[in-house]
Amino acid sequence: MLDTEILSKIGAAARAATGKKAFDLVGLEVSALTSYADGFLLCSAASERQVGAIADAIVRQLKNVGCRPLHKEGASRSDWVLLDFGDFVVHVFTEDRRAYYGLDSLWGDAPRLDEASLLVDEPAAPADR
């Protein structure tokens, strides 16, 4: 089971993502499968522009709770952005790129976080601009 602080941050990322119309969110607990992260959040976007908007919203939302990414891969207008927050990693893809890389099946042995754990049903708090 993930630490409640990590779950809370993944939940904040999920709420920020859904606030920018991300879909097909999947949370994974990967701590037993890898040493570099405890959790993943995967989400899809309809366009490259939306990938950037979702990634930017996640960074802003987590900055509000004192959590900054250690590393960011992918440009704001890209088909895949990876945000490494240390304890967890967020992947934001276009649908095509997500299907191509298949991280959902690659990490198929990882337990999935249910929607209650992701807290995606709560509205995202407005991010500072």
Molecular structure report:
The chain is α+β, with helices and mostly antiparallel strands. It has a single domain, classed as 2-Layer Sandwich (Beta Polymerase, domain 2). Helices cover 37% and strands 24% of the residues. It has 5 helices and 6 strands, in the order αββαβββααβα. Strands 3-4-5-2-1-6 form a 6-stranded mixed beta sheet. Strand 3 and strand 4 form a beta hairpin. It is globular. It starts with a helix and ends in an 11-residue tail after the last helix.
Overall average residue pLDDT: 89
Please state the CA-atom Rg, rounded to the nearest Å: 13 Å
N-end to C-end Cα span: 34 Å
Q: How is the biggest beta sheet arranged? A: 6 strands, mixed
CATH topology: Beta Polymerase, domain 2
Q: Please identify which CATH superfamily we are dealing with.
A: Beta Polymerase, domain 2
- Shape, principal axes of CA atoms: globular
**CATH architecture type:** 2-Layer Sandwich
Assembly form of the protein: single chain
How many domains? The number is 1
Helix content: 25-40%
The secondary-structure class comes to: alpha+beta
H/E element order: HEEHEEEHHEH
Task: Let me know the number of strands.
Answer: 6
The number of helical segments is: 5
Strand content: 15-25%
Contiguous uncertain segments of 5+ residues = none
State the CATH class.
Alpha Beta
What topology, given as strand order, has the largest sheet? 3-4-5-2-1-6
